[in-house]
């Protein structure tokens, strides 16, 4: 799409029925930092508009009263050594009870997305082939299992505070823990996507 960044951003918000950048990022399955990068480059990728138009066309399809449709992203999220992410594509969705999400899981459904679990390093907490529910956050707040990007790789690991910065732990003891320095955590190569708050899988 041609035009200034502000014109492109306005069109995106119109297509996705959003008004704030944070809401736009959530609907598109991106982080607010990604939108900042678009602004810095003064360009929004064409595939983002394709996704926004698809979202706009599906906007009239709503879940039954009392239920919410959570987006499911078919991305290479690795619970092993990490997988290079080339694209994030909204492939399908799943329906959950809104009261269950708010009262039992303790999250706002508007800040939730679903991702597949691939790899065995977080076993038995996260099992390969399962689905995890990710609560979008912009930064590490407390110890827990997080989906994050580092060095162009998207991973799911247990993050813990350490004197050096963050300790990265796999629940499968055959994988050695490693650390991210404070400098690495603050660098552009590191980005927290969200915290894992629920997981499920087929028997």
UniProtKB/TrEMBL annotation:
CDD domains: S24_LexA-like. One of its GO terms (molecular function) is DNA binding. One of its GO terms (cellular component) is membrane. Pfam families: Peptidase_S24, Phage_CI_repr. It comes from the Bacteria. Residues 9-50 form the Bacteriophage CI repressor N-terminal domain. InterPro entries: Lambda_DNA-bd_dom_sf (IPR010982), LexA-like (IPR039418), LexA/Signal_pep-like_sf (IPR036286), Pept_S26A_signal_pept_1_Ser-AS (IPR019756), Peptidase_S24_S26A/B/C (IPR015927), Phage_CI_N (IPR010744). Residues 71-197 form the Peptidase S24/S26A/S26B/S26C domain. One of its GO terms (biological process) is negative regulation of DNA-templated transcription. Keywords: DNA-binding, Hydrolase, Protease, Transcription, Transcription regulation. This is Transcriptional regulator.
């Amino acid at each position: 799409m041609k035009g200034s960044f502000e014109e492109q951003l306005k069109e995106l918000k119109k297509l996705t029925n959003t008004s704030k950048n944070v809401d736009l990022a959530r609907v598109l399955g991106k982080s607010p930092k990604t939108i900042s990068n678009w602004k810095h480059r003064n360009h929004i990728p064409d595939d983002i508009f394709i996704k926004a138009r698809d979202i706009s066309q599906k906007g009239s399809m709503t879940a039954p009263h009392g239920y919410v449709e959570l987006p499911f992203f078919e991305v290479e999220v690795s619970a092993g050594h990490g997988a290079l992410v080339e694209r994030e594509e909204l492939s399908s969705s799943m329906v959950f009870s809104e009261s269950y999400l708010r009262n039992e899981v303790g999250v706002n459904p508007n800040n939730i997305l679903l991702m597949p679990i691939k790899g065995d390093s977080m076993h038995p907490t996260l099992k390969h082939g399962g689905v995890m529910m990710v609560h979008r956050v912009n930064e590490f707040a407390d110890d827990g299992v997080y989906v994050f990007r580092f060095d162009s790789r998207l991973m799911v690991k247990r993050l813990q505070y350490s004197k050096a910065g963050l300790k990265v732990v796999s629940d499968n003891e055959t994988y050695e823990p490693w650390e991210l320095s404070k400098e690495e955590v603050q660098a552009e190569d590191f980005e927290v996507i969200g915290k894992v708050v629920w997981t499920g899988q087929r028997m």
